[in-house]
Amino acid sequence: MPAGRNTLIGDIRRFNRFYTGLIGLLDETLTQSAYTLTEARILFELAQRPGHIVENPGGKAGFLARALRLDIGPAASEIARELHLDPAYVTRILRKFSAAGLVEMRTDPDVPRLLSLTARGMAALAGLQAAADRDLARLTERLGDKEAAELSDMLMRVSHLLGGAPAS
Fold first, then answer.
1. For the chain, what percentages of helix, strand and coil (3-state, to nearest 5) are there?
2. Are 39 and 93 in contact, with CB atoms under 8 Å apart?
3. What are the structural domain ranges in the chain?
4. Where do the H-state alpha helices sit in 100-166?
5. What residues does 141 pair with on adjacent strands?
6. 93: closest CA among 32, 37, 48, 51?
7. Are 104 and 122 in contact (CB under 8 A)?
């Protein structure tokens, strides 16, 4: 590995330690909530997928969603695979969520286990997102408009360089 890469790797590791400490990613729970980072991420992933759109399964919207199969949420194995987590660990988290009324677990002949957020789960996620937004607003409040735009550009550039979202 070229010496420049060793320097880059050291810089990335130093930044990772700085940032995880700065925003409390190593704290026992996220944003002083009842949820760990992994639990919050699973809630977020469930909200990004179909399955939580059927508020009233007996109503017209529920019928159409079921007819078009729009109410089918992800399987636990799909979430585990996409987040690179142990499926048994994800299942334990989902059972905890189900017991707390945050997630509905349904069965379907074609898919082993379907998941969707309940209204309580969506409210929990909204609370987590609001707390995270508050924390990040507090973190960046000292930045002027120019610095905020510069930071935003840098974050987009890092994402692009590391293979994520394209830089705009």
1. 60, 5, 35
2. yes
3. 3-161
4. 119-140, 145-161
5. none
6. 37
7. no
Nearest to 79 by CA among 68, 93, 69, 66: 93
Quick one: tokens of 14? Answer: 């130093």
Single-letter amino acid, residue 92:
R
The continuous run of DSSP H or E covering 61 comes out as helix 60-67
The whole-model pTM stands at: 0.73
- Domain 3-161, CATH number (from 1.10.10.10, 3.40.1010.10, 3.40.50.2300, 3.30.70.120): 1.10.10.10
CB atoms within 10 A of CB 79: 22
114: phi then psi, degrees, rounded to nearest 5 = -105, 145
pLDDT at 164 over 80: no
Q: How far apart are CA 33 and CA 38, in angstroms?
A: 13
Per-residue pLDDT of 88-136, as tens digits, reads: 999 999 999 999 999 988 766 665 557 888 999 999 999 999 999 999 9
